[in-house]
Amino acid sequence: MTLISTQTPTAELQALDSAHHMHPFTQGAGLAEKGARVITRAEGVWLTDSEGHRILDAMAGLWCVNIGYGHDSLAEVAAQQMKELPYYNTFFQTTHVPVIQLANKLAEIAPGDLNHVFFANSGSEANDTNLRMVRAYWHAKGEPDRQVVISRKNAYHGSTMAGMSLGGMAGMHSQGGIIQGIHHINQPNYWLEGGDMTPEEFGLARARELEDAILEIGPEKVAAFIGEPVQGAGGVIVAPDTYWPEVQRIIDKYGILFISDEVICGFGRTGNWFGFEYYGTKPDIITTAKGLSSGYIPIAASIVSDKVASVIDTVEFNHGYTYSGHPVAAAVALENLRIMEDMNLVDYVKNDIAPYLAEQWHALGDHPMVGDTKIVGMMASLALTPNKDTRAVFKSPAGTIGYMTRECCFGNDLIMRHVGDRMVVSPPLVITRDEVDELIKRARKSLDEAYEKIK
Ligand code: PLP
């Protein structure tokens, strides 16, 4: 084996990487040409790469490092747990202290009757669990025909077969199709699809597509609706105010289950513990991952209501993962939650840093290339446009200008992502006001550079 370290020259690391490492959501051939950026260290909101650049991570990794990088106590807790009990499973009537503690903590944090927790290792897996759980629920209730789950186009619910199918990403569906029993309705993306309607009219119209779909499929065949409070990977799409109340009304009317996918919106990102609290909806199951451990270790959790758990508990739910509730992951997640509480992080987001970021973010709206600016808590997006008055899209293939702008951001040591021609940020929740200023300064410089290229 070739011995390498962070001291190995970047070009050598890149060559070895592209020779043997298949990257997610990356074109391998492009990697071989250009080489991946090698990240070597991180602290707070700052990454360091193998060339010594200090990069502002406005994406918190993949929307997950909520408490920021560099909290040593998580490493200490993991090491201690590995020494004491590195592994045991939770199948067949066994348990252990970290998983008991974490399930109880999550039941305490999650409002209402969300009191039961099923553990997985990733958001995708947790959504697989949820799909199986809602079908098992209706089966146990004597309604086995209720199999269909309704989701939205341009939603992201993961990358496993079920997660991908639940999601509404056309580029993923086109590479091999989706599983049966998933139905997609349109997304509440006013900027792109609102036409001549007002945002309020559009929000209602898009919500009512849920009712149309239920009636078309047959209410006796619909198991659940799944939705992210704010569509993260879809481009931080914030629904008009009329949307979620109407969706909840329809869910209640037909008695279907509601899964709120909180993988991005959970653990403080919206200024609440969970995103559904921001909108006042009442989910039966929530999907959580990412911020649960701030990305320090893989762990995910479906947090389940009394209503659903009381039915699932009457049968043996034939489902589980070797690492469901892994003791080391559970101990790290607990420490992460302890830090969040200790820092009053949810309150900091709601009452301090999110309003500050919102002010600065909306100010970018004066840029000639920026149309829509949207922000909920610490997730924000802006639409790049050739004409903000008409909500026009660029003539170049969708995503060309977004990609170019992202490259300018990289050049300015800022990680800002593009989704088509929408730019998105989701920084660590611990970001300071000075760091927000720096983020905005670098974003504006990058927008200027991109604009120069297309003028
Ligand atoms: N659900 C949502 C809303 C997500 O944003 C993601 C990942 O970005 C997932 C599910 C899948 O999570 P994972 O990548 O941990 O499988």
Textual characterization of the structure:
This protein is α/β, with parallel strands linked by helices and 455 residues long. The protein has helices at residues 10-20, 28-34, 60-63, 72-84, 97-109, 123-140, 161-166, 170-173, 190-193, 199-217, 243-254, 275-279, 306-312, 327-342, 345-363, 400-411, 433-454, and strands spanning 39-43, 46-49, 54-57, 114-120, 148-152, 182-185, 222-227, 257-261, 285-288, 300-305, 370-376, 379-384, 414-415, 417-419, 422-425. Helix 10 (199-217) packs parallel to helix 11 (243-254). The longest helix has 22 residues, at 433-454. The radius of gyration is 22 Å and the shape is globular. It binds pyridoxal-5'-phosphate (PLP). Pyridoxal-5'-phosphate binds next to helix 6. Belongs to the class-III pyridoxal-phosphate-dependent aminotransferase family. This is Aspartate aminotransferase family protein. Its cofactor is pyridoxal 5'-phosphate.
Mean pLDDT: 97
Number of helices: 17
Radius of gyration: 22 Å
Q: How much helicity do the residues have?
A: 40-55%
Question: How does the SSE layout of this entry go?
Answer:
Elements: H1 10-20, H2 28-34, E1 39-43, E2 46-49, E3 54-57, H3 60-63, H4 72-84, H5 97-109, E4 114-120, H6 123-140, E5 148-152, H7 161-166, H8 170-173, E6 182-185, H9 190-193, H10 199-217, E7 222-227, H11 243-254, E8 257-261, H12 275-279, E9 285-288, E10 300-305, H13 306-312, H14 327-342, H15 345-363, E11 370-376, E12 379-384, H16 400-411, E13 414-415, E14 417-419, E15 422-425, H17 433-454
Parallel strand pairs: 3-13, 5-6, 5-7, 7-8, 8-9
Antiparallel strand pairs: 1-2, 2-3, 4-10, 9-10, 11-12, 12-15, 14-15
Family: Belongs to the class-III pyridoxal-phosphate-dependent aminotransferase family.
Cofactor: pyridoxal 5'-phosphate
GO molecular function: pyridoxal phosphate binding; transaminase activity
